[in-house]
């Protein structure tokens, strides 16, 4: 039976590789070189390693929200509606700006410097000493929502007149769109609104403010009947004391006489005119 002939291509290569160790080493090195060249040609390009970052950067730019524009829609708000909002957020609407100003104006928990800084977030300029002098010294509650109206000035500028009800009367705030480095926003215009000091003083005595002197407290005056009773009791006590305590004498105390000093020796016999009875 005839043996099948070997592969005419692989048989010579197999015999050449197995002929010596040198041929085997050359063959292994040649195979690795071919694989390296094939991988360099058909493999992944080095620039593709940075391509996944490009969509993420573009996505980060697209997810950044654009700054909101100011609105002239007058949506009335309450004091709780502005809680937790930033100055930039409330500055997009006239009612929210006026309510934020009123909320900061009636706040007495800060010192004068902190109060001016907080109030200046919603005003065209930083409040001066005049507005500090008109600062409320007692707690004032905001009792309702805003009431707003758009008014057009002589130059065609539109502004909003906002009214905020409080315990001490209505606080009327004028706000207008003003350009700033962070964009256009509603700001309170000069002169800055304040409350009537007479109405504020009716709410009670001013407490001590942080960093300021405490208000003097008045002691209650005793009643007339209590004073008369105290006077009567004092007079009665004085009379009783004077009656029971003896009056000291004005005469000087007598000088004590010293006792006689005994003389040593026999007792002397006195001389008598008549003889002693029984004597011879």
Structure in words:
The protein is flat and about 200 Å long. The chain has helices spanning 10-17, 21-42, 53-63, 87-90, 94-105, 112-119, 129-133, 197-201, 224-244; strands at residues 147-152, 158-166, 169-180, 183-188. The protein has 280 residues and is an alpha+beta fold. The protein is built from 9 helices and 4 strands. Strands 1-2-3-4 form a 4-stranded antiparallel β-sheet, covered by helices on one side. Residues 48-52, 54-60, 62-66, 208-229 and 236-245 have low confidence and may be disordered.
Compile the SSE list and pairings:
Blueprint: H1 10-17, H2 21-42, H3 53-63, H4 87-90, H5 94-105, H6 112-119, H7 129-133, E1 147-152, E2 158-166, E3 169-180, E4 183-188, H8 197-201, H9 224-244
Q: Identify the strand order in the major beta sheet.
A: 1-2-3-4
Number of helices: 9
Distance between the termini: 210 Å
The amount of beta strand, in percent, is 5-15%
Pick out the low-confidence regions.
Answer: 48-52, 54-60, 62-66, 208-229, 236-245
The percentage helix is: 25-40%
What number is the mean pLDDT? Answer: 74
Radius of gyration: 56 Å
H-E order? HHHHHHHEEEEHH
Shape summary:
flat
For the biggest sheet, the summary is: 4 strands, antiparallel
Assembly type: single chain
Helix and strand content put the structural class at alpha+beta
The overall strand count is: 4
Give me a quick take on this structure.
The chain is of the alpha+beta class and 280 residues long.
